[in-house]
């Protein structure tokens, strides 16, 4: 790899992150500072993950929601294009064939079961310690499109994060000569950074999840199990919150 192509790859990675989840990480850091310096500290603040974008106007709200979801997956298309332009096959990130699809789906469900149970326990502990905000997984109006939008949001989050921060970023870091442990650590730190708006626990928990997901990707070479796991995790979080918030004592709301 020439020095010029190496520089261009570095610029490419910086630009991709600046347009997507790296930018989210910067805003999340500012949000954390704002929450920490607000009256009452972190535990008295709320982080809304899926909120109304046009209160009182459900059709306009739905339009905004769909636009946000659609534009939210554009970075996935961008990194697919960039990988193809550099003669890397973006399709190699995904499962191929029915048998591999089934195996990766089962792997994803297993990951979700383990990460989901430990993640919920970790959040409840860190929230009780006052180092996390109250995470409001959804505050959408009670209309017909509420649950479909939550499902699409879960899928969009999974595609964006696992393709960009795992599949694309680890591919480029490997091509830049970064060792596997350092590359996985970098991916995990990026993942943790854009969850800083949830608090210190949100950063730590997602960074640890990033270490696991990065390691699994280097073993399997595919993002499919990670996308399945992430989608299931967010589906349970979003819809579970919608059904349980205010009805069970142990869930902060």
What does this protein structure show overall?
With 253 residues, the protein is mainly alpha-helical. It has one domain (3-244). Helices cover 70% and strands 2% of the residues. It is built from nine helices and two strands; from the N terminus they run H-H-E-H-H-H-E-H-H-H-H. It has a two-stranded parallel ribbon with strand order 1-2. The longest helix has 31 residues, at 98-128. The radius of gyration is 19 Å and the shape is globular.
Key descriptive features of the protein:
253 residues, mainly alpha, two-stranded parallel sheet, 9 helices, 70% helix
Helix content: 55-70%
Regions with little confidence, pLDDT below 50 for 5+ residues: none
Class by helix and strand content?
A: mainly alpha
Provide a count of the helices: 9
Strands side by side in the biggest sheet: 1-2
Give the SSE map:
Layout: H1 3-19, H2 21-36, E1 46-48, H3 58-72, H4 74-85, H5 98-128, E2 134-136, H6 146-175, H7 180-193, H8 200-220, H9 224-244
Parallel strand pairs: 1-2
């Amino acid at each position: 790899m020439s020095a010029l192509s190496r520089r261009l790859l570095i610029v490419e990675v910086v630009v991709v992150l600046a347009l997507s989840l790296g930018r989210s990480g910067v805003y999340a850091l500012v949000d954390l500072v704002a929450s920490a310096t607000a009256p009452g500290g972190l535990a008295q603040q709320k982080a809304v993950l899926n909120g109304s974008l046009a209160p009182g106007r459900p059709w306009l709200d739905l339009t905004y929601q769909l636009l946000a979801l659609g534009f939210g997956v554009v970075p996935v298309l961008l990194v697919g294009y960039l990988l193809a332009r550099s003669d890397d096959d973006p399709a190699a990130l995904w499962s191929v064939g029915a048998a591999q699809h089934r195996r990766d789906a089962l792997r994803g469900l297993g990951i979700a079961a383990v990460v989901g149970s430990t993640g919920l326990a970790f959040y409840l502990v860190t929230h009780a310690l006052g180092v996390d905000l109250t995470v409001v997984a959804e505050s959408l109006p009670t209309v017909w499109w509420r649950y479909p939008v939550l499902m699409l949001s879960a899928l969009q989050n999974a595609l964006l994060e696992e393709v960009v921060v795992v599949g694309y970023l680890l591919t480029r870091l490997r091509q830049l000569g970064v060792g596997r442990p350092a590359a996985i650590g970098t991916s995990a730190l990026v993942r943790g950074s854009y969850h800083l708006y949830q608090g210190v626990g949100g950063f730590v928990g997602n960074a640890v999840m990033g270490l696991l997901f990065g390691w699994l990707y280097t073993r399997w070479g595919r993002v499919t199990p990670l996308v399945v796991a992430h989608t299931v995790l967010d589906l349970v979080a979003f819809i579970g919150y919608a059904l349980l918030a205010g009805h069970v004592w142990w869930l902060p709301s």
